[in-house]
Amino acid sequence: MKIAPSVLAADFINLKSEMEKVKTADFIHLDIMDGHFVPNISYGPDVVKFLKKVSDVPFDVRLMISHPLKYLDTFKDTADVISFHIECEDDTDEVIDKIISMGKKPAVALKPGTPVEEVYKYCHKLYMVLVMTVEPGFGGQSFMAEQMEKVKKLKEKFPSLLVEADGGINAKTAPVCKAAGLDIAVAGTAVFRAEDPAAAIENLR
Ligand code: DX5
Question: What is the CATH classification number for the domain harbouring 39?
Answer without folding.
Answer: 3.20.20.70
